[in-house]
């Protein structure tokens, strides 16, 4: 976690104890303050630990710790203090709850095929018999729908984990793991793109799979970013029934060491074994 530099709105970034700069404050093992600067390649970070809300409050907006792009609520995604493994999380109701950005620009890199990136998400889903979408750049199913998404596909009771990038007529990238995304099982997924042609999907520190493509025509002026729902080309919504604890986006492809460090950090926060 990269926490804010204030507590209850009071800036403590210059605090000292006995003349020594305060580098970090923890409560019950969780970092609640750090004076360390954000990594240079971090472009978005959303963490339930950074939300100063009461249990049951609507998360609107979900503030970006980097200061680059807050997410606006649709419906009432809810802050819960006892979410993923008893930790703060944001809960989506499998109906109309989502966070979104009404422009493709801030998250276009997830599917533009030209920008290297690493993306991490901490998520747990609850529902059964459906298609659940924690993360989407609006629409990867069928003709005319373009973008990227990560899903739990339980329509056949198989709990498949799936990452797709679509150019509107077909999936130009598709990585899938049969049974790789069970319900009620907190996970840390990460997607890594080299900026050229290769996408890789990890479950914790395990490589789920990779896909190489040279067809990167995925731009669409109607693309939006959505957390908690997407809509397919038939107008059917695919909402999230579950919790999101945090996600991070970087504009570089991380080395294996950097990737493991990020995963360990998130695993420690949310008490997830990786």
Note the topology.
Elements lengths: L5 E2 L2 E2 L4 E2 L2 E2 L2 E4 L2 E5 L7 E6 L24 E3 L3 E3 L8 E5 L4 E4 L15 E9 L5 E6 L8 E9 L6 E9 L2 E7 L9 E7 L4 E6 L2 E7 L12 E3 L13 E10 L5 H15 L4
Antiparallel strand pairs: 1-2, 3-4, 5-6, 7-21, 8-11, 9-10, 10-21, 11-20, 12-17, 12-21, 13-14, 14-15, 15-16, 17-18, 18-19
Short key terms for the protein model shown above:
274 residues, mainly beta, Jelly Rolls, 2 domains, eight-stranded antiparallel beta sheet, 1 helix
Structure described in brief:
The protein is mainly beta. Helices cover 5% and strands 41% of the residues.
Q: What is the name of the CATH class of the largest domain?
A: Mainly Beta
Number of domains: 2
Outline type: globular
Count the beta strands.
21
The percentage helix is: under 10%
The share of residues in extended strands comes to 35-45%
């Amino acid at each position: 976690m990269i926490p804010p530099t204030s507590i209850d709105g009071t800036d403590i970034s210059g605090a000292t104890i006995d003349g020594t700069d305060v580098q970090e404050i923890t409560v019950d093992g969780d970092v609640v303050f750090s004076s360390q600067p954000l990594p240079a390649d971090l472009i978005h970070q959303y963490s339930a630990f950074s939300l100063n809300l009461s249990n049951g409050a609507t998360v609107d907006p979900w503030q970006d710790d980097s200061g680059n792009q807050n997410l606006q609520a649709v419906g009432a995604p809810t802050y819960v203090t006892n979410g993923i493994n008893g930790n703060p999380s944001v809960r989506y109701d499998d109906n109309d709850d989502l966070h979104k950005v009404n422009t493709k620009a801030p998250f276009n890199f997830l599917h533009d095929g030209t920008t290297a990136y690493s993306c991490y998400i901490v998520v747990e889903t609850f529902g059964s018999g459906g298609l659940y979408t924690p993360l989407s750049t609006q629409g990867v199913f069928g003709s005319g729908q373009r973008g990227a998404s990560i899903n739990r596909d339980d329509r056949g009771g198989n709990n498949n984990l799936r990452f797709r990038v679509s150019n509107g007529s077909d999936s130009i990238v598709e990585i899938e793991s049969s049974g790789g995304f069970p319900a009620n099982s907190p996970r840390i997924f990460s997607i890594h793109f080299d900026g050229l042609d290769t996408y890789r999907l990890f479950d914790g520190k395990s490589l789920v799979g990779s896909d190489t493509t040279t067809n990167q025509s995925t731009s669409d002026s109607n693309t939006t970013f959505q957390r908690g729902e997407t809509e397919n080309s038939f107008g059917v919504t695919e909402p999230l029934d579950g919790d999101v604890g945090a996600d991070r986006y970087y504009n570089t492809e991380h080395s294996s060491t950097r990737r493991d460090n990020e995963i360990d950090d998130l695993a420690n926060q949310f008490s997830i074994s990786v």
